[in-house]
Amino acid sequence: MTLELNDMQGLLVRGFGNLQGAQYLLLRFTEAERSRKYIKELLPLLTNALQKPDDHAVQLAFTYEGLSFLALPDETLQSFSREFKEGMTEPHRQFVLGDTGENTPENWVWGSKASGEIHLLLMIYSHNAETLAQKLVQEEARAEAYGLDLLHSLPTGMLHDHKEHFGFRDDISRPIIQELNKKPTSEKEMTFPAGEFIMGYKNLYDEFAPSPVIPPEFDKSDDLPDLTNDSAFKDFGKNGTYLVFRQMEQDVFAFWEYLLGQSKSKEEAIRLASKMVGRWPDGSPLTKTPDKNDPDLSTFNDFAFWEEDKWGLKCPIGAHIRRTNPRDHLVTEKTQKDSAEMASKHRMLRKGRPYGEPVCGDLEPSQLMELPRDHKERGLHFICLVTDIRRQFEFIQNNWVNFHKFGGLEYDADPLIGNHYKNGNIKTDEFSIPEYPIRRKLCDLPNFTLMKGGGYFFFPGISAVRFLANYD
């Protein structure tokens, strides 16, 4: 099935990597009619998936509260997923996501009820700081003219050599969408049907991804296509998806101080950090080069675990990259094929970016260990796109990232982004490194990342934005 790229927002198929600067604006509507006029004015400014901008790009997404404020039909509002309707800070969901203790929404800067109800996420990308500043002035003035309140303005950007603040190369492993794939892939690099990430297309279950609907009598301008296999409704979700946004602050100094405290040298600290990540700082995977980094493999992603490293002697089972993408090895499955199929049903399109000033320019770990605390805020704006929040993002976060018995472990959450704590008989603050003849355990891990904000958004197709602009 051919993808309707002209009806999709561009972030679905590209990360705008050539646009180094970006800013995320979190806005709140105050008047429904004026808000629809604002959306109508934004519509021609949106960058679609056919465009390859070299100057700037604009994207938008709505919270459930924002769509409710625009008074969409109740039947439409109810057709969204439960997770989207309830939101990221619903009490049970806080437990599922590990947003407890230090990570509780009560401590967030944005996204909690106390910090103000968010309706719209406006994402602005630009090729340089000057253009970004100009676009911000324009868009903030446009929002103010239509009565929108700017609640938060979140700067973001790219770091040296595609690294994140701990000093490791990031964003190497990305799912490949079948309908967009133009290169041959190996068996290890499987492709995914578009419906895993884009509504209106079939997913891995050979079913159309669940999509919100509009009763046809409300689509007076005939902006929306019919729902596939059910012409009784219009498809409000087609060419859109859900966007998960989490702001994660990184304590770079605590990370390297802890590792130095567990080591006899800087080299050993880097080795232990690489065990936690599953890759060396330059990106080369431990499964392929366990003893030292290999610059030729810095972006290498064509590897698996079942045959190459089943017991985690090269890349520990609890390492970050194995927990967030187990590839073909899950101890809950009896065969390599079953493991690969299970893991494939829980993938996400990641589109996030770091924020904040790096501790040092080139982010070399040996230098990061030497510098004194500067008390500046830095971290990751984690963004992913999924058609099923529960099956994809929430499953990974609950069952793989935070579950302390993942892969047969005992007291280990994800060493980088997991919530580390002791609560009665449950503790999640260890990291196990399989070694011969006896494994090594790192204990009393602090939280190296802390949640500072988050929310679930609907990332609509262009036709759905046009419907909102015309809806009355």
Keyphrases for this structure?
Dimeric_a/b-barrel, 4-stranded antiparallel beta sheet, peroxidase, 2 domains, 472 residues, peroxidase activity, iron, Dyp-type peroxidase, alpha+beta, 13 helices
Please provide a written account of the structure:
By secondary structure, this protein is α+β, with helices and mostly antiparallel strands. It folds into 2 domains: 5-245 and 455-470, no CATH class; 250-346 and 399-450, no CATH class. Helix content is 24%, strand content 19%. It has helices at residues 32-42, 64-69, 74-78, 82-86, 91-97, 129-145, 252-261, 266-277, 320-324, 336-344, 365-368, 390-401, 462-470; strands at residues 21-28, 56-62, 120-126, 149-157, 176-177, 191-192, 213-214, 226-227, 230-235, 241-250, 349-350, 353-355, 379-386, 422-423, 426-427, 431-433, 440-442, 449-459. The strands form 6 sheets. Strands 10, 11, 12, 13 and 18 form a 5-stranded antiparallel β-sheet that branches. Strands 2-3-1-4 form a 4-stranded antiparallel β-sheet. Strands 7-9-8 form a 3-stranded antiparallel β-sheet, with no helix packed on it. Strand 8 and strand 9 form a beta hairpin. The radius of gyration is 22 Å and the shape is globular. The mean pLDDT is 96. InterPro entries: Dimeric_a/b-barrel, Dyp_peroxidase. Keywords: Iron, Metal-binding, Oxidoreductase, Peroxidase. This is Dyp-type peroxidase. Its cofactor is heme b. One of its GO terms (molecular function) is peroxidase activity.
